[in-house]
Amino acid sequence: MSEQEREKQGAREDEVSKWKIGQHREWNWQEILQQQIAAGLVAAEPFRCPTCGTMRRNRICPVCGSIMDLKTMTETVHGDESAK
Q1: pLDDT for the residue 57
Q2: How many domains does the chain have?
Q3: 25-38: per-residue pLDDT in tens?
Q4: How far is it, in rounded angstroms, from Cα 84 to Cα 52?
Q5: Is the distance from CB of 36 to CB of 53 less than 8 angstroms?
Q6: Secondary structure letter of residue 60 according to DSSP
Q7: Concatenated DSSP letters for 10-78?
Q8: Which domain holds residue 81?
């Protein structure tokens, strides 16, 4: 067994032992969403894009590319209107 294979095997065993003794941390979607809201990456409630009308939570619209300031809920960069 090469040195790299031994290191990989050791890393796998460490990961398995963490799961066995309960040191792992499971992420649930609610906790991740709350962290994203606190960081200002997504809005707490879905809103309609002022340019194309798509419902979204994110700062940047995936359809037209408009950018919203989530604190004031104002559009800072107008999106592409032809993307409706």
Answers
A1: 92
A2: 2
A3: 667 888 888 998 99
A4: 5
A5: no
A6: B
A7: HHHHHHHHHHHHT------HHHHHHHHHHHTSEEEEEEE-TTT--EEEESB-TTT--EEETTTTEEEE-
A8: 42-84
